[in-house]
Design goal:
Elements lengths: L1 E3 L5 H12 L4 H24 L7 E10 L2 E10 L4 E7 L3 E6 L2 E4 L3 E3 L2 H18 L6 E7 L4 E4 L7 E2 L4 H11 L6 H20 L27 E4 L2 E4 L5 E3 H15 L7 H8 L5 H11 L2 E2 L6 E2 L1
Parallel strand pairs: 1-2, 4-8, 5-9, 8-10
Antiparallel strand pairs: 2-3, 3-4, 5-6, 6-7, 11-12, 12-13, 14-15
Helix pairs in contact: 1-2, 6-8, 7-8
The structure holds zinc ion.
Protein name: Nuclease
Organism: Ureibacillus manganicus DSM 26584
Length: 305
């Protein structure tokens, strides 16, 4: 049973919005693409764990903290007698494992995910123990991409290769015989509450610096991301792919992008009018703001929360 779903991390959202509105510096661009790929890998794994039918609690994407150290769990599954957690890697292409090192073929060394898994395992075990739960914890690395091959995969490493995923999950399902109790539910609840507490403290250090004047304004098409859109009556039409969206929902979508990118800026009709570019009347923007946000102040000092 799905207990906690995966949502797109805010950092990824910021980078996604920035990427279409400015030229990201090379380092940030590759960081963004990695983050995106990782997220997509998580979604791919979710589509498999989502089919699990037995008494299992599936918690996706937990950011936890123990001993002043933050660690991330891509997926955690609570069964009646064990806690499994998964580090998901969306690597593609031929890889080779040699002397505890992982290389992308022919010889590019990439960080061995085992080190990260071990670190998370230690922290997770301690955290769970501190919560008074006495269940074994097992960490597994999932290579989710069907285009991934690993040569010389050691038998004793907790690696799940794309070809093994299906049978692994079937085995997990069939080996779960006893029911979950309130204790398991309470643990899931506790872990989710810890995740929420921590995410607010999380700071993003990998974002480029940007200001309102530096980023491209306008409404981009929801489907193809093009900024070539035109307003016709109550609709906005993409001139590139032809997608038609209600203007009010496109404005709201664009307001959300603005708020994600500029958390500390005040939301006003003028700012959003400038931000949308293509909406001919401020009245229409004001209506969307009034319908969806709380009005603070009046006249020219009005802003929205
Ligand atoms: Zn389009």
């Amino acid at each position: 049973m799905l207990y906690k779903s995966r949502s797109k991390p805010e950092e990824l959202l910021v980078l996604e919005y920035l990427d279409k509105r400015m030229a990201l510096p090379e380092t940030e661009k590759s960081y963004y693409l990695n983050l995106k790929k990782g997220f997509e890998g998580g979604i791919m794994f979710d589509s498999l764990t989502g089919k699990l039918e037995t008494d299992l609690l599936v918690l996706n994407d937990l950011l936890l903290r123990h001993n002043k150290t933050t660690f991330q769990i891509d997926t955690l599954i609570i069964s009646s007698n064990k806690i499994f957690f998964y580090e998901i890697k969306n690597y593609e292409g031929d890889h080779i494992y040699e002397a505890d090192k992982l290389y992308k073929f022919p010889k590019t060394e990439i960080t061995n995910p085992l080190n990260q898994l071990r670190r998370s395992e230690t922290l997770l075990k301690q955290l769970i123990f501190s919560l008074g739960i006495n269940l074994p914890v097992e960490g597994i690395i999932v290579f989710i991409n069907p285009e991934f091959t690993l040569y010389q995969a050691p038998l004793n490493c907790p690696f799940l290769l794309p070809t093994q995923l299906k049978s692994y999950l079937q085995k997990l399902e069939s080996s779960t015989t006893s029911k979950l109790t309130n204790k398991h539910q309470a643990l899931a609840e506790k872990l989710v509450s810890l995740h929420l507490l921590n995410i607010k403290e999380n700071k993003y250090s990998n974002l480029p610096s940007y200001e309102f004047d530096q980023v491209r304004k306008g409404i981009s098409c929801e489907i193809c991301k093009s900024f070539s859109v035109s307003v016709t009556g109550h609709n906005i039409k993409c001139t590139k792919c032809g997608y038609v969206e209600l203007a009010s929902s496109a404005i709201l979508r664009n307001i959300n992008e603005f708020m994600t990118l500029f958390r500390n800026e005040k939301l006003t009709t003028n700012v959003i009018y400038d931000w949308c570019q293509v909406i001919p009347s401020k009245r229409r923007i004001r209506k969307v703001l009034i319908d969806n946000f709380k009005i603070v102040g009046c006249n020219q000092w009005t802003y929205y929360l």
